Amino acid sequence: MKKVPVALGVLVLAAAISSSVQAQQMQAANEEDSRSADKRAQDKKATELDRVIVTGVRAPKAVDKIPGAITIITPEEIKQSLIITEDNTAVLARTIPGYAESSQAMTNSGESLRGRIPLRLFDSIPQGSPLREGTRNGTFTDMGVIGRIEVINGPSAAEGIGATGGVINYISKVPEQIGSETTINARYQTQFNDDSVGWKLGLSHAIKQDNYDFLASVSQLERGMAYDAKNRSIGMNSSGSLADSQSRNLYMKGGYNFGEDGEQRLQATYSNFNIGGNGDYIQLVGCKGPNDWPPCDTPVPNTSIKGHIDGQRDALNKFIQYSLQYTHSDFYGGTLDLVGYQAKQGMRFLPENGADRQLVKPAPADDADRIFDQSEIQSRKKGLRTSWTRPSIFGVDGLELHTGVDFVQDVAEQRLVMTDRVWVPPMDYRSIAPYAQLSWDIGPVTVSGGFRRENGELDIDSYTTVAYRNNSFVEGGTLDYTANLPNLGAIWRVTDEFSLFSAYSKGFTLPDIGIPLRNVNYPGQTVAGILDLQAIIVDNIDIGFNWRGSRGALSGSWYHSTSDFGASLEVDPLTSDFIMTRAPTDIKGIELTGEFRFTDTFKITGLYTHLRGYTSFWGPDPQGRYDAGPMKKPLGIFDATPDKINVALVWKALPNLDATLGASMLRDRHLTGSAVREYDGEEYDYDEKINGYTLWDLGVNYDSGRFGTFSLGVDNLFNKYYILSGSQGDGWQNYWAGRGRVVSLSYSYTFR
Question: Which of 364-368, 466-470, 571-575 comes out lowest in average pLDDT?
Fold first, then answer.
């Protein structure tokens, strides 16, 4: 039986509240006038907020004073995406030029930003763990809670470790209306199969008074089975599927303003999100063609059939997060911001019978029955983020200092839970990172520069690898991670409409420590001797422009990102798990975003991204016999997205009726490369061909006023059949088709 405690709570609350609606209808006309005025005020405020960012600076700052490629995803863009799909990362794929295709799954494997892993934040608190990435940090809350998303494209150490591809900060909604308001949301979606039906119920309540505010949101989402455009069920993703799943979310945030003129504020938040599979289906593995094993004449993607593996636990992704924030807007002439947080995450994956899951190492040609086992990652973190921002420092107008120190402790491990075995031992990372940033407005030019010092220490327990890795004992130990991370940039506001910028920055992260730890396959190894555990430090240069006129806007940037000892992923064909290659990486790219308003009611938006990256076929030999190879291996689909073009037509047909028609295009791509290692004559080659595709979507909103807002969303409007780009690269059991047409009906009603 499915558990529906949140849904039941929503229904009870909705029933209790609905009794007041009839009485309110007597005041409908007056409320409509009030709502219109409120809407105008909100639109003005939204326009002002769209040009302000806090990510990376931790204090409100105008975008045109920050050098770098920055994208702000507005509440309207989030709302429009939610009409079409509840996938948390779909809005990023639609609006961020360097963001890869959405996996359409619980996992965000392959969803890179500019060819590298981004740091995802929720209200500036890191999600996931760089110790064991797990590819689950893109699904951590109900997107209905999110008010805006701030994205810094490119490596940045400003928010801590993990941002080698950039920073994506999901910022929760805040109460805006004086008084209280309650919103009920409902959603129904289907692919017109009996088991494809999904639904959502949600309720949020906001209160705002002179000195306090409070927001609470609760929701439950049930998803049915997913089907491709040929009406075949899509295979369950071993890293986590959204199909045949249910999620529950509870979010609360309250703040109290005090002190003279309310310059001090204390704010507490609590978030509890749980998404899990229903366990009704198991995957039936497909075949990519004659070169796959076992081979087939006609490619057939993975499908799902009804069933359950004995002993299986449902896949899940669970986040629990607390935070307490204190701000003082007049602390020694500046703004003090202190945020303490604690978070826990549990990630459980579906059972697999790969060679590395067996109790005894299978022989090369052993076809005997294998056991299934499933892995689970547990991580927890706590930290304190501090900042103090002082304008006109040293009495110089336009000179601003931003400084502070961050403390963090991150603990993670991975186990094979059906047989209770260690796969990745407990890892404990502690870091102290002081930083300072100066920015100086000199007329139309803003120059900024800063420095962050990462002081980290990682403790790893002794452990023994699994049978497939020869039951190798590895002696634990402590590793030190220190790095100096400077940044420098300038932006020149040539006119009120046009600006140019250039920026240099470093990014710092750990290389998914768990992968090289679990892959040790010979005895006598120590943690201190594993070369692949070295940090990843990325250097990045950005050059770009921004133009914003009365009818349109256009932004563009060119970037070059390098790492002397980077990391790229491959899939081991024997185990179907990721293995890591540590070698130099080099990525270059171009990004463009723009919009044009033909009339006050009709506009077009678009983006384009092109990137190419290279790495080495082999890294440096731990025994010093040879260096890393030349950078002749292209970065493939697991690391770098093909060229992408997204376009959307937005038409506001009436003041209360609008429609958006969108198109997302991935271009064809064919990558090749080869090299010969002189040391032993070993030959390497790489060949990857990606077939692109174009998907259309449609969203329509009708605001009826007193009866609420009705929305229609259609994902994959023309029911295009395609194979996900991430499934077209090398890999075993990773052959998935994309979803066919999905129709959604949504309803929202807000009353005060």
Answer: 571-575
DSSP 728: S
Tell whether the torsion through CA atoms of 720, 279, 570 and 116 is positive or negative.
Answer: positive
pLDDT > 90? residue 424 = yes
User: Sign of the C-alpha dihedral, residues 43, 44, 48, 54?
Assistant: negative
Q: How far apart are CA 499 and CA 488, in angstroms?
A: 17
Residues contacting 721, CB < 8 A, separation 6+: 228, 229, 230, 737, 740
How far is residue 433's CA from residue 436's CA, in Å, rounded to a whole number? 10
Tell me which range, 56-65, 362-371, 595-604, is most confidently predicted by mean pLDDT.
Answer: 595-604
**Distance between CA atoms of 563 and 582, rounded to whole angstroms?**
10
Instruction: Count other Cβ atoms within 10 Å, centred on residue 729.
Output: 18
- H/E element, 83: helix 75-84
Q: Over the stretch 325-360, which tens digit does the pLDDT of each residue have?
A: 999 999 999 999 999 999 999 999 888 888 889 999
Compute CA 511 distance to the chain's CA centroid, rounded to the nearest angstrom: 18
- Identify which of 113, 374, 108 has the alpha carbon closest to the alpha carbon of residue 241: 108
Q: Can you give the C-alpha Rg of the chain in angstroms?
A: 26
Q: Would you mind telling me the total number of residues written for the chain in this entry? A: 752
Closest CA to 142 of 253, 224, 217: 217
**Alpha carbon distance, N-terminus to C-terminus of the chain:** 36
Strand boundaries in 362-398, DSSP class E: 375-390
